[in-house]
User: What shape does this take?
Amino acid sequence: MEKNKIIWIVLLFVVLPVFANTGKYIVYFKDKPIENNIQQRFAPKAIENRLKYKIPFDERDYAINKNYLQQLNALGAQIINKSNWLNAVVIQADKKSLNKIYQLPEVQQIVTIEKSKKKGIASDEKDNECTAITATQSFEDTYTSSFPQFNLLHGEYLHEKGYHGENMIVAICDNGFYNANTNPAFTNLFSDKRILGTYDYVSGDSLVYEDAAGAHGAFCFSFMAAEKPNQYIGTATKAAYYLFQTENNSSERLQEEFNLATALERCSQLGVSVVSISLGYTTFDVPSENHDTSDMKKNDTPAAKAVNIAASKGLLVCVAAGNEGTSPWHYISSPANADSAFTIASVDVNGTPAASSGWGLATDTRVKPNVAAVGQGAKFINTNGIVATGNGTSFATPSLAGMATCLWQAFPDKTNWQIKTAIEQSASQYLTPDKKIGYGIPDFEKAYTILSTATYVSDKSVDNDLSIFPNPFQTLINIQQKNNKIVKNISVLNSLGVVVAAKVNPIDNQIILTDIESGMYILRIETDKGLCIKKIIKE
Assistant: This one.
């Protein structure tokens, strides 16, 4: 769901600026103290995940300095929201208070949040992800309306093996979840007490079901959690969920990115494994503040920073690519641009890329989007409990996130990185990714096989410690390692996963490849510390 925003950014360095009489601001601090009892703020499941995946508590997890917060209050500022990860708070203050806050030595930067002139999310047709929503009444829909969209992913393979998201915790960040508490498609969720919590970061309460403008979040939720036998089955119907509203439906403010950052931090504290985000930020009401292509290569927006931190804390964060594919700006949005975001493009049930789906940057070496799922002509459950049809990467994202949840359930000892990588490696064009749908359409049966056999999946820490050269190559591949890793085995696989060359315990850390044809291959390097996967090209 792309949204136009006014962002008035003021960087404060030398000259004291003139502020509005009253307004909202993001205050960034320079430092924070060490927190010795940090685990007290984390749920047992979150601590379990940190231990299982060997993810340390670090400075980003430490709480903001309480003295700094007290100083803000003493100077007349009202603290609306805070993010330990970003070491920042959202405040409301008048000119007099703000000028005093600016002079505090611990303040690094202040960003002004301006109110948008545009109201509501559905009024902007260009960015509306919920276009062409109509009730469907065909025989096919009355039976299994959702089958074609997860069949394209071979997701039924996981369902047939008994993986529906049991014992997994998922969070959805959106604009609200209108009528979800009374929608018959979610009856089992509530009767089983698998709605673990709700919170509205806009109003500061737990009320997320009441606002009719929050239908978009309810639609996205249905792709994962709706369960109406013989009509519609979501991709992760047995998972437990947190429902977080981060979007303001009456006005558009930079604070919404901050809300998202805060929600992601809370997900980390609650033990969430998978997050689905169908939100995006590109164009603002003040042209001078618009994101440009260089911004999309960066990770310095509040939302993108938070997504990257969340991924480093073990979360799989699925983000919609955006729907600007046919506009002058046809690129992905933020936080879909974040390096660690699992960015989802849109296709129809035949696998044809949706024209509206956002593109990756032509000059960007990263694969963005990462993969694609059905978002064009996608079936979901509307707020009245009826099967409906809509378009957008907003819909592709929760569908894919649900299948990823089921896959992770099947392999609970794998990391978020390994789950993400297996899904990418299973996709239809893994060896030849493009800027429209990335690695292509995943095959979850193949992803299951990959994780079962460890044929492709790489450990990120090992991957970062190994480099290969030259690439492209003609006859010889050299492997250079650091941190005292020992290369035990080298193998080369073709696009079908067939080993075409191998070398055991290579003393020289190289492999000669003279008898294979030109093209792209997978280089599989097994070390004493784990597995590394590289793509190589023979000229």
